[in-house]
Amino acid sequence: MELRHLRYFVAVAENQSFRRAADRLHLTRPALSKQIRELEEEIGVRLLDRTPARVVLTPAGAVYLDEARAILARTEMAGSLARAAAAGKRGELIVGEPGVLGLKFLTPVLTSFRESFPHVEVTLREIPPSNHAAAVEAGEIQVGFAVGDAQLNRAALDHISVVRLRVGVAVAQDHPFARRALVTAADLAGQRFICISEGGSLEHAQYVRDRLTSLDVPGVRIRNVAGLRSLLTMIASGHGISLLPDTIASSAEGDVVVVPLQGDSGLFEFEMFAVWRKRDDSRIVRNFVRGLRSFAQRSPSAAGGRQPVSAG
Prior knowledge:
The chain is of the alpha+beta class and 312 residues long. It has helices spanning 3-15, 18-25, 29-43, 59-86, 106-116, 132-137, 203-214, 228-236, 247-251, 283-298; strands at 48-50, 55-57, 91-97, 120-126, 143-147, 157-172, 192-196, 221-225, 242-245, 256-260, 269-277.
């Protein structure tokens, strides 16, 4: 049995006439009649009663008509969905979650992508940013984000620069540093630093240690918390300070500010890249990368500022 047999049967049943159905299908009447007989022989029941005046469905034919229509409708829907998937309008996209580093760009990019492709299911997978490139290469995620260019030397990957981030000192709004134009390395001596340990990763703490060591800050004390909300709450309540991108300050209004840190700007600036497989022919991935590229072209490098951010 082929789908054409179902289409022929439905046409005859709906027109109650072989002649009218044959005209509709651009077939000869004998050829159409032969196709219907083959169908009846294959399923082993008579579907139509043929009379000189018209064609009438048998009880079995009435049941078969409902099922034939449903099969044809599902087949058409399957084709439509397949075409939409091929065009990148349906399917799934798995993106690496860059954590706090994605505050500047990921939300607006995902919002725009959802508006353009509402039937694509986006999944954010929480992976430390240092592992994103390897995860893309291994096929665990389709798009990831790499800090700096150390992860980009992989032949299988392509990349674009998404945003440049600057790091400052995150403090409570009533902290003495909050009123400063700049914080110096000497100011940081003896301060307690709070860092994010997402998924057990100590990347943030290591970053803070490395930067403070480069500034010769003595007596570094670090406490790790589970996530961004905990981090901001602890900072806002005066339990410590941190080194964070100034995108934190531009994300919302609240009671934490990020103050610029004096020193070699190269120590406190880094670039974030989107990475994906070069040979990935997924239209969904290409559509998402196009959105990232559009954001990067519209947005200047992350701007400084001491705007507050909510701890809640």
